[in-house]
Write a structure and sequence with these properties.
two-stranded antiparallel sheet, binds zinc ion
Length: 216
């Protein structure tokens, strides 16, 4: 391009002369398509970056529109308002999302992966209670350690009647997920914070052989 006087700042107007394209003759064989472009008249209005959206309309460019055009859409999950509430602490919300998708690397998932890759099935157990296999349902909050945490925190936000099963807790939260009442906001925060604390304790024991001991 530089050989013909163009650079990255060159504009369309630089290759149009009297309404006709004025491409370097050497490009005729290399880029024949350029010579087939229809002629055009340029206006004096400032340049704009435009985008043809999914409805075929030419609209001002926005990366948000591009993302909405190319992304795969799915049904909104009924728990989304509980997880992605504006009041939630982002790192707690992200962990809740992983739990709901059953995507944490709990030992049952590690074992499955290990069996596929190495063909082995080493015995492992929950590092919080040493009594059962570590799964999502076990950690949140059916493990004896986690259950103790849950029983302490649930009474502080009016969830005393909600048992220690994650699915039951989520079922209780979903119809209240849009509420801005202080107790409902607190209930969402405390479930997410309790899950985060348990996962942190598990990781401290799993990776660093550390731990804070049983909750009081
Ligand atoms: Zn356990």
């Amino acid at each position: 391009m530089a050989r013909y006087g163009y650079n990255v700042m060159s504009k369309v107007a630089d290759v149009i002369e009297n309404g006709n394209w004025n491409w370097p003759e050497d490009w005729r064989n290399v880029y024949p398509v350029l010579f087939q472009l229809p002629s055009m008249n340029l206006s004096n209005t400032p340049d704009q970056i435009l985008w043809q959206n999914s409805e075929g309309k030419i609209v001002p460019f926005a990366s948000k529109d591009v993302w909405n055009t190319i992304r795969i859409r799915d049904q909104q999950k009924d728990w989304s308002k509980f997880v992605w509430s504006a009041f939630n602490i982002p790192k707690h919300a992200f962990l809740c999302w992983l739990i709901l998708k059953r995507k944490l690397w709990t030992q049952d998932r590690i074992l499955q992966w290990n069996r596929k890759v190495h063909g082995s099935m080493n015995q492992m157990c929950c590092l919080l209670c040493y009594a059962d296999l570590e799964t999502h349902d076990h950690l949140f909050f059916q493990c004896s350690y986690s259950e103790k945490v849950w029983r302490i925190v649930r009474s502080k936000v009016g969830m005393t009647m909600v048992n220690e099963k994650w699915d039951d807790i989520v079922e209780w939260l979903i119809p209240r997920a849009k509420s801005r009442a202080i107790r409902m906001v607190a209930s969402r925060l405390i479930v997410a914070a309790a899950a985060y604390a348990i996962w942190s304790e598990r990781n401290a024991r799993f990776f660093f052989f550390l731990g804070k001991g049983l909750p009081r």
